[in-house]
## 1
Amino acid sequence: MSREIVAGVDGSPESLAAADWAAREALHRGLPLRLAHAWRWEPLDIPLAQDPETQQRAAYALLREAEAAIAERHPGLALTTELLPDTPVTALLGAEDRAELLVIGSRGHGAVTGFLLGSYGQQIIAGATRPVVAVRSRDGEQAEPPSGYVLVGQHGSPEDSAAALGFAFGTAAARGAAVRAVRAWSLPALYAYSPASMRLADEAGGLVPYEEKALREALVPWRERYPDVPVTEHVELGSAGQVLLSGSGGAQLLVVGRRARRGAVGPRIGSVAHAALHLAPCPVAVIPQG
């Protein structure tokens, strides 16, 4: 099955900014773009049109307006639209089986407070099995510098962050951009020290060289697969969220991994992804880990 990029639109300036980002990404990757709008008729408690036909016509009109706006800005793009008869979360998650990635919009609130992701967006990111990009919008314009690097967080073993690194390198290659790979580390708790763990650190020359070696080894297969992508490595003491956010100002895209986990109220996106989605000034790609 051919792949495509799917962007959710709901008529808001934020979703149109996300669709515009998705259009450019589709052109970078040589993929078609599908604009999807979720609509299911339900009686309303406010004095608006109640009959299904009228509401459906409004839903199709919303899609046509979004399609016209994107087609005008990106005339060479293979573009289609689809009205999905379901709730937004279920509809977009149902569309991911044919998607290279899903793109959703987020409402901007300024550089200090970040942006409100919204309950729908958080549920989509938590439940998706494909990468999801949340595009921050400021007054309907998506916030992405015209140049810059693709910033990606690496943690644990090479396998732990393989999905995020692969997405970051593939995106950078498609855009002709560089990758900035970041590994955050912290001093282990006293009870975590053991002869075996400290021997590994001693063999590497200390804790910092050990972390640098771990990052370097995780990047080896991706440097080999994408030899033309420039790469810089950065290891810093601190929490992963703080370290990534400190480097996100000059990024075209921030890429973070998300482990599949469930809490008492459903799937969770994890603390690092949560911080990135709410505070990063650039678009954020959340990649499900294996």
Note: DSSP finds nine helices and 14 strands in the chain.
## 2
Amino acid sequence: MPKLRFSFPWFDRKAFPVLAGVVVGLYLLEEVLTLREQHHSKVRRSLTNTAVAATGFTVVRAALLPAMVYAGDWSERHRFGLVHWLGLPAWARTTAAFLLLDYTNYCWHVLTHRVPLLYRMHRVHHSDLDMDVTTGFRFHLGEQVFSIFFRGGMIALIGAPSRLVLGYEAVFEGCTAFHHSNLRLPAALERGLARILITPRAHGIHHSIVEQEFNSNFGVVLPFWDWLHGTRCLDIRQEEITIGLPAWRDPEELTVPRLHRMPFDELRPWALPDGTVPRRLPAANGE
């Protein structure tokens, strides 16, 4: 059996500095071009989000990337996976594999909202009371671990080669930072980008305390899957959005130790602490 050559260090050497630059740039730009008003200390939230992300980042680098590379190399060696079975030419295999990688990540995101075990972990991400580029790192370790098995399995089933997988991962991480940012884009640029990418306005709606909005805009890179499945939502004014989860409004409940324990806490009703269910009045729609 040929020795498997993990190429993920290349990802860190080449892609990581670029991604770090993107994050720093967005962090500074969103202070100048601000999309939504911030209600809590950005410095404190950034420190909290970074601390929560630290363990997940270790898992991604130590386990997820190697698992993805292994799955891609294995499927390529064995000619296993959908893009191989269809007998497509090389360019079509690459295009189809990229699209399917993005679609399976859409599906994974939907599962983290609808499967109770996954939602227990995913709510750590949504519990942030404001939203900026650091929110894109706020994922619980448990969610990262489960994603290893799902994403590795999907890569093998698709038949995506490891080089494409790593290329897609760089795009995935860059887009995650971008659409979680609190960056206000010019209206014309926003409208144009929204046709081909998930934008900060679209993903801000996804972080709303209104349940219907929370269950919309699941896409990571491309918006087509939300259109296809009827989960696209764009007609919400940004100033009308309250970020976070309705049942978790107290910052003192959202410390780093509590966030690590959150998956083991009870599932609270979708309501504010006073029992009110957040709703969107029709008159508030339209932007």
Note: DSSP finds twelve helices and no strands in the chain.
